[in-house]
Design goal:
136 residues, 93% helix, 0% strand
């Protein structure tokens, strides 16, 4: 059997050219990708320096202000809480003093009224005293 190597050589040449074209396409895509990467990196760096950095500084300043305000509010809240606690304690103490004072006055007045009732009752009754009833 006689083989024709011309066809085989021709097909090998086509495959070699196709492989070379593919290799050049891959190298070109790699170079284009690298250029785009550099351009995107430069654009992002520019955006960061022009827009993000000033915004971050403003946000940092705002956060510092918020921290300061929060600290002041916390301090004043503690002071108000302490003042309210002291006031409630004083009101409770005053309430107890008033309660004891009023009770004492009411008991005195009740004693006086009972004494007066006893005197009036003894003057209005005609019954002999208990001691005298037992002797009769």
């Amino acid at each position: 059997m006689v083989m024709d190597l011309q066809t085989t050589n021709w097909l090998l040449a086509v495959i070699a050219v196709a492989s070379a074209v593919q290799m050049l396409a891959i190298i070109g895509a790699g170079i284009a990708g690298f250029r785009m990467y550099r351009q995107v990196t430069a654009t992002l760096a520019d955006l960061e320096t022009r827009h993000v950095a000033p915004l971050r500084q403003q946000v940092d300043r705002i956060l510092d202000d918020v921290h300061g305000i929060t600290a002041r509010v916390s301090h004043r809240t503690e002071r108000v809480d302490h003042a309210i606690s002291d006031t409630i304690e004083r009101v409770d103490e005053t309430k107890e003093r008033v309660k004891h004072s009023v009770r004492e006055q009411v008991w005195r007045a009740t004693g006086v009224i009972r004494g007066i009732r006893a005197v009036i009752a003894s003057l209005l009754t005609t019954e002999p005293p208990v001691e005298a009833r037992g002797r009769v």
